[in-house]
Amino acid sequence: MELSLLLFLALLLGLLLLLFKGHPKAHGNLPPGPHPLPFLGNILQMNRKGLFKSFLQFREKYGDVFTVYLGPRPVVMLCGAETIREALVDQADSFSGRGMIAVAEPTFQGYGVVFANGDRWKALRRFSLATMRDFGMGKRTVEERIQEEAQCLVEEIKKSKGDLLDPLFFFQSATANIICSIVFGERFDYKDQQFLRLLDLFYQSFALGSSLSSQIFELFSTILKYFPGPHREIYKNLQEVNRFIGHRVEKHRETLDPSNPRDFIDTFLLRMDKEKSNSHTEFHHKNLILTSLSLFFAGTETTSTTLRYGFLFLLKYPHVTERVQKEIEQVIGSHRQPALDDRSKMPYTEAVICEIQRFADLLPIGLPHMVTKDTHFRGFFIPKGTEVYPLLSTALHDPHHFEKPEFFNPDHFLDAKGALKKNEAFIPFSM
């Protein structure tokens, strides 16, 4: 009996200490928001239909800038095109930090172009953009790699001979193969076992990352990281992908020709060699592996899912499909592949692509940012290190920028003369 009482008292004391430790402290003059509970934050005030539904309800009460406690940590939410642009563009330096995605943190640890911060992010981003742009200086361009894969995709679909076909696997394979071509310098056959394993690891990880368990892990990762869960499976999967990339890097080292870089890995290796005497360089093996992984991480799921939505909308709205087909026949015809130069001559097709991205709304909550210094924003004080979430969906459905945002309508991106028009609220993947 005494032992049971002691255990109960110890458990009660531990819980009280946890609650005290997790009690939200004052964080400057943060924007208003629902009152949080110790440790739990605002989780009990969330809508059962999901976090985003809850955020929209909080917006109605507190305005376009408000604070929500996700577990014990405060997060500032930004709503509407003007608010998001004011933060991420007008005060870009202050809001340029990367927030943490807990399930990815054990793998990336602040390395790689997607999850890096500060000068590291600037250096890797500048290099990655320049490398993509410079493909074509005597080398195969990114456009040519996409054209090659598009042709392979068409040939695979033709094999069905008009039978019913689930295109999911082909869309996933095509998008992953384009990134393989850019990073590794080669594409894979759709039946290649290594390639199929790579696909499986990626899409397993994406599925686990979007599960309810992973969402709960994001709220309470400081405690849950010590217990089994999807975060461990994601880490295991991505480590296997990293080993695959590492083997490819070693093969590239053995066959590297400095006068003829074949792909992203070759170009990075040459930069590593150029800066090997610089002890502070960001061009080292770890950033090469994790930047390569970042390109897959950022490009595969979003692109293949956009393709799926695109085909769905074209099936649902045949009058849109008919106009796209007519424009394709007028500009490209049936005897050559589409080229990037055709884009400026096809405003309706471009408008349809933009509307697919807007209406699909793949990232309603953008990647988390973090303020890099104490920041004054719209009359509020946001302390350095506070996470900030841009709610991109509120821009994509802003009635001030889109006449009928709840409807699929390519005219949202066309002017009265049928020419393509720029829309400041069109930020499907942030700014």
UniProtKB/TrEMBL annotation:
Claim: Kinase is one of the keywords in the record: no
Enzyme class: oxidoreductase
Gene3D superfamilies assigned: Cytochrome P450
Family membership: Belongs to the cytochrome P450 family.
Subcellular localization(s) per the UniProt record: Endoplasmic reticulum membrane; Microsome membrane
Name of the featured protein: unspecific monooxygenase
Keyword Metal-binding: yes
Cofactor needs: heme
PANTHER family: CYTOCHROME P450 2B6, CYTOCHROME P450 508A4-RELATED
Membrane protein topology class: Peripheral membrane protein
Keywords: Endoplasmic reticulum, Heme, Iron, Membrane, Metal-binding, Microsome, Monooxygenase, Oxidoreductase, Signal
GO cellular component: endoplasmic reticulum membrane
EC number per UniProt: 1.14.14.1
Main location: endoplasmic reticulum
GO biological process annotation, one example: xenobiotic catabolic process
Single GO MF annotation: estrogen 2-hydroxylase activity
Residues spanning the signal sequence: 1-28
Source organism per UniProt: Cavia porcellus
